[in-house]
Design goal:
The structure holds two protein chains of two kinds.
Chain A lengths: L15 H28 L1 H4 L6 E2 L2 E2 L1 H27 L3 H24 L7 H17 L2 H6 L12
Antiparallel strand pairs in A: 1-2
Helix pairs in contact in A: 1-3, 1-5, 3-4, 4-5
Chain B lengths: L4 H4 L3 E2 L4 H7 L3 E3 L11 H6 L2 E5 L5 E5 L6 H4 L10 E5 L6 H18 L9 H4 L2 H12 L9 H17 L3 E10 L2 E13 L1 H5 L5 E15 L2 E9 L10 E3 L7 E3 L2 E6 L6 E2 L3 E8 L4 H17 L9 E8 L5 E2 L4 E5 L5 H4 L32 H4 L1 H4 L8 H43 L6 H43 L25 H25 L4 H20 L2 H49 L1
Parallel strand pairs in B: 2-12, 6-17
Antiparallel strand pairs in B: 1-9, 2-16, 3-4, 3-5, 6-7, 7-8, 8-9, 9-10, 11-12, 12-13, 14-15
Helix pairs in contact in B: 5-8, 14-15, 16-17, 17-18
The chains are: A mainly alpha, B alpha+beta.
Chain lengths: 159, 611
């Protein structure tokens, strides 16, 4: 019987920081999934179709804004699922995608915190910010970067 | 191309005259296409200059006018208060019309000579966005610092070509020194102008330039053998300035003449052709340097990020060697030493004193002196200048090694005898100590003897350490002796700490786009900021942050450094977010840390108990 070729990635042991990242991504997926489901259930979009007028007098209505937010979150949910698959398979591109994602998320969060006093910064926003910060610190760990092929130097700390 | 060891063997009889030796080993200098100034006669230059005095109060007055100055007049003793600067002035002050005329004539001259310089992928595209910002500040600093103008550079080029019409000789000023068993041949090259900044995008321009190349010989069996070649270049000092004669990879020898590649405009010398990235540190006040150092330590050691220093500006020194070559058949040699009046008696600057506080634009002094009139180490200590003061010539090295080996061998025997004797004594004392145990009335003597035993044991330990160290040294000496006796000289580069390596092809992903972006990005950023202030002043700080991030990301894509840059930006944002989170939840964060520490300790202790 022909032997199946083993992927070289399977030999690499996942560092604890990488596990923390995966758990946090899972958490973010759960949170975004909750937001999307909450919106669809609350708006009854499956039963009654689009919730009223979405665009009026040259700007989005409140229903339109809610729908846009839901679509935006759904899009991030899909990205997060793709990233999660890449992280589990120890792919380099998933590290890059995640770091871009958290940078964007942190930028948006910080701008919201500093400039949008009219929209309250909720505890959920703080939680997302904290998760993003932890993810950045974990993503920049030497062993995490090495296992995802970001740092190519294999210098080990002296024993 | 570097040649093979066999082709490099060249000797001269020890009885050869100084001039014969100096001519036999004079360098081949290879310049970059587009170079405007070459080694020339100082006498012709001085005749074109006026002599000036800059007093400590800032006043400047002419001492000898142009046309009246020669080498004899230059060295006349002149009394002056402390901190007075005497300097030559090659190009007199130019009116606007004269400056415009000089620039036009320079352009015509270049066209006639058809010898242009092409920078290729310029230095701006080699550095990142932050070094480029620092570079812009450096350029702006010329508004405050003294500067030699572009018209002065143009006039200098025209005047040099005029002088060249009258005297086409390429002159090196040669000097022979005998020191510590070495015969040192120094070649001093005088250029009437350094056009690194105006001609080749470098750090500075100044009137006059003195550079030196040296060859170090040793005597064996009545013959002089070349062993080292040294030359001065940016960012390097001591041992790093010299290459061994048999280093085929680093030093090219043509018919017994070392080949040296001269930096375009800067006239710094290199052993290999290529483009060298020189870096200039921006001088920062002490407290800012302290903050930057602390931040860098935190950034690299705590946050595990690659080091970055935006306060270092990259400059390229082009030593391509694709231009004029000046070799043995081209040189005119003039011998100099301390008895040459213009060498020892004129301590002033050999060109314009531009009042630049960091000296980059001020002219240098002569071969024997620094700008402040103190003696120049390359002149009075040519061995120490290149770290050769600790290196004996090979024949002496063999004798020294033999003497050192026999001394260490003798010391080894002495140490072994000593250790044996002292060990016997220690055993005897140990036996006596043992006899005192369990005898309460001997307590006082016991303590005293124990003290003596400890001291003796320490002494024996010291002797054993020395024996062990000496054995390691002996092994090294024996290896060196074997090598020297069998004619092997070891690695020719073991003395080099930092090797000057020309940069390879620049790996910008889209080189033309990167070049254009490098030239335009800073201005585009300023336009964006101006637009932000005008159209959305409310979002100034956020806008600045967003603009900076966008520019950095675009830059990183062009430079092929996207991952590094995004990693750094994310780390910076995470730090800001951490500050925000700590500001709101410091009580919970501290409690959380304490609880986690407590749990961890509890877990560790319980595990210890249950083992």
């Amino acid at each position: 019987m022909a032997r199946l070729k083993k992927s070289p990635h399977k030999h690499r042991k996942r560092p604890i920081a990488a596990t923390i990242i995966i758990l946090l991504v899972l958490g973010e997926i759960a949170l975004r999934l909750y937001w999307v489901l909450h919106y669809t259930l609350q708006s009854g979009i499956w039963l009654t179709g689009l919730p009223g007028v979405l665009w009026e007098a040259g700007k989005p209505t409140s229903a339109g804004l809610d729908l846009a937010a839901a679509v935006f979150r759904l899009q991030w949910l899909l990205v997060a699922i793709v990233v999660l698959i890449g992280l589990l398979r120890l792919r380099r591109w998933s590290w890059v995608m995640l770091v871009v994602w958290v940078s964007y998320s942190l930028s948006v969060g910080l701008l919201h915190y500093l400039y949008r006093a009219d929209i309250p910064f909720t505890i959920a926003d703080f939680a997302v910010m904290a998760a993003d910060a932890v993810m950045v610190f974990a993503l920049n760990q030497f062993d995490v970067q090495r296992i995802y092929g970001i740092r190519r130097d294999d210098a080990e700390p002296a024993g | 191309m570097p040649n093979q060891p066999g082709e490099r063997t060249v000797t001269m009889p020890a009885s050869a005259s100084d001039m014969e030796l100096l001519r036999r080993f004079e360098p081949v200098c290879c310049y970059t296409s587009g170079e405007q100034f070459f080694p020339m006669d100082v006498e012709a230059y001085v005749r074109e200059c006026s002599l000036w005095e800059h007093t400590p109060s800032g006043e400047e007055s002419v001492l000898v006018r142009q046309g009246e100055l020669d080498l004899e007049e230059l060295v006349k003793p002149r009394q002056a208060p402390f901190r007075t600067v005497h300097f030559l002035r090659f190009i007199e002050n130019l009116s606007i019309t004269e400056a415009a005329q000089a620039l036009t004539d320079q352009a015509l001259l270049r066209r006639r000579m058809n010898d242009y310089f092409h920078a290729g992928l310029g230095r701006l595209a080699r550095g990142g966005f932050l070094p480029r910002l620092a570079d812009a500040l450096f350029s702006l600093s010329f508004l405050l610092r003294g500067k030699v103008s572009a018209a002065t550079a143009a006039s200098a080029e025209l005047a040099y070509n005029r002088m060249l019409g009258a005297d086409k000789r390429r002159i090196h000023y040669a000097r022979l020194v005998r020191q510590n068993g070495w015969v040192i041949l120094q070649y001093w090259l005088f250029y009437c102008y350094n056009s690194w900044r105006s001609g080749f995008h470098g750090v500075n321009d100044h009137e006059s330039d003195w550079e030196t190349i040296s060859v170090y010989l040793y005597e064996k069996d009545g013959l002089l053998h070349p062993e080292w070649v040294s030359c001065a270049s940016h960012d390097f000092k001591g041992d790093d300035l010299r290459r061994r004669w048999d280093d085929t990879g680093e030093l090219t020898i043509e018919d017994g003449h070392p080949v040296i590649f001269i930096g375009a405009g800067s006239h710094a010398a290199y052993f290999r052709a290529g483009e060298y990235q020189a870096e200039v540190n921006i001088p920062l006040p002490g407290w800012i340097s302290g903050i930057v150092r602390t931040w860098n330590r935190f950034w690299t050691e705590v946050l595990n990020q690659p080091p970055a220093n935006p306060f270092r500006i990259p400059f390229v020194d082009y030593a391509r060697g694709d231009g004029l070559r000046i070799g043995p058949q081209d040189w005119s040699s003039v011998m100099i030493d301390e008895s040459t009046p213009w060498i020892s008696q004129y301590r002033g600057l050999w060109g314009l004193y531009a009042r630049d506080p960091i000296s980059g634009e001020n002219a240098p002094a002569g071969p024997m002196y620094n700008r402040d009139g103190t003696p120049r180490s390359a002149w009075y200590d040519p061995l120490g200048f290149v770290g050769l003061d600790k290196v004996p010539p090979p024949p002496i090295a063999l004798k020294l090694l033999e003497i050192e080996s026999s001394q260490i061998a003798a010391r080894k025997g002495e140490l072994e005898k000593n250790i044996l004797e002292k060990n016997e004594k220690l055993h005897a004392m140990g036996v006596r100590l043992r006899a005192m145990e369990e005898s309460p009335h001997m307590a006082k003597q016991y303590v005293a003897l124990e003290k003596k035993i400890n001291a003796l044991a320490d002494e024996i330990k010291g002797l054993r350490r020395e024996r062990s160290e000496n054995m390691a040294i002996m092994q090294g000496l024996a290896f060196q002796l074997d090598q020297l006796r069998s004619g092997k000289t070891g690695s020719p580069r073991s003395h080099i700490h930092h090797l000057a390596v020309p940069s390879g092809s620049i790996s910008a992903r889209f080189s033309n786009a990167a070049e254009t972006w490098a030239a335009a990005s800073l201005s585009l950023m300023l336009f964006s900021i101006a637009g932000l202030i005008f159209f959305a002043p409310r979002y100034l700080w956020a806008g600045l942050a967003v603009i900076s991030i966008l520019f950095l990301v675009l830059e990183s894509i062009l430079r092929g450094a996207f991952i590094n840059t995004v990693g750094r930006i994310s780390m910076f944002l995470a730090l800001l977010a951490s500050i925000v989170l700590f500001f709101h939840f410091w009580k919970y964060i501290i409690v959380g840390i304490l609880l986690a520490l407590g749990m961890y300790l509890l877990f560790e202790r319980l595990r210890e108990l249950t083992r």
